[in-house]
Amino acid sequence: MPPISHGFHGRRTDAGERDRVPPGQYVTHDFPVLSAGPTPHTPLESWTFQIRGEIDQPKSWTWEELTALPSDRVTVDIHCVTKWTKLDTVWRGVSLDTLLDGVDTSAEYVLAFSDGGYTTNLPLADIRDGKAWVAYEFGEEPLEPEHGGPARLLVPHLYFWKSAKWVRGIELRANDEPGFWEMYGYNNYGDPWKEQRYAGD
Amino acid sequence: MIELDGNAIGGELYDVFGMDMTGVMGVCTYCGAHAPVAEAVVYMRGPGTVARCRACHELHMVLVTIRDVTCVDISGLAALEMQ
Questions:
Q1: What Rg value do the Cα atoms of chain B yield, rounded?
Q2: A19-42, pLDDT tens digit by residue?
């Protein structure tokens, strides 16, 4: 009699990976496309990234200027509030530290704004100190429009709705203004490790 | 497919309004276009569901279900003309 086969196990999340998956999430290997509107196609010639609001002199970069800035290649895990987690995603982008360098502001919050009207709010501290990027490459390729290209915010320590697709800038604010999903009852902060999906979590 | 039409939320709207809404005429707050709810452009693969005007792409409805309670924002519709 042949030894009993242990059969096929499929693809399991190993113990090392399990520690990287926040509560209530599952690991996906594809990259789901989520959107609240049509995919904008802003020509790069007219694209800019702006910092405005509580700042003496608003700052603005053209596409050429932004992509000429020093960039980081980052490998991070991303967590969507719709419960998928994708491990080891590879991005290239400009750190918000670079963009905010020399910016003197009393603001404590930012509202990121995007083509198509999407917004999301974050504490300013959460996009500083190497925690956030304006990302324009995914997996060594230009970021595809359906995933937020030409550029999206990348704030991997928060649920991914905070990583605004098609981002065009941030508004520095003294007060905290809820963004699009936050206004409809999603959590104001969105820490996946505390499972802060909805207001009150 | 990312973009669906209003028929995709027919069931969800039935649960909220207690009637079939897909044939109801909606009037866009932004551009004034008249169209049946079934003709809206619907995005369901997000934290919530969004229905937009097929003419001007502005928001008609946002449906969000949180802890089994569904909230519907229809401020993008100036009117829903029920026969």
A1: 12
A2: 999 999 999 999 999 999 999 999
Partner A contacted by B1 (CB < 8 A): no
What are the boundaries of each domain within chain A?
A: 47-194
Question: Are the beta carbons of B43 and A37 separated by less than 8 Å?
Answer: yes
Instruction: Chain A: give the shortest CA distance to residue B63, in Å.
Output: 9
- The secondary structure of residue B21, as a DSSP letter, is -
- Mean pLDDT, chain B, rounded, equals 94
List the end-to-end C-alpha distance of chain A, in Å, as a whole number. 56
Fold of A47-194: Sulfite Oxidase; Chain A, domain 2 (3.90.420)
Q: Give every CB contact of residue A101 below 8 A, 6+ residues apart in sequence.
A: none
Number of domains in chain B: 1
What residue spans of A61-178 are helical by DSSP H? Answer: 63-68, 96-100
Give residue-wise pLDDT tens across range A81-90. 999 999 999 9
- Residue B26 near residue B17, CB atoms below 8 Å: no
- Domain carrying residue B47: 3-81
Q: Do A184 and B41 touch (CB under 8 A)?
A: no
- How far CA A12 is from CA of A28, A29, A128, in Å, comes to 11, 12, 35
Q: What would the DSSP string read from start to end of A25-40?
A: -EE-SS-----SSPPP
- CA angle, A137 then B42 then B1, to 5°: 55
Q: Which residues of B touch A162 (CB under 8 A)?
A: none
Which chain B residue has its CA at the smallest distance from A37's CA?
B43
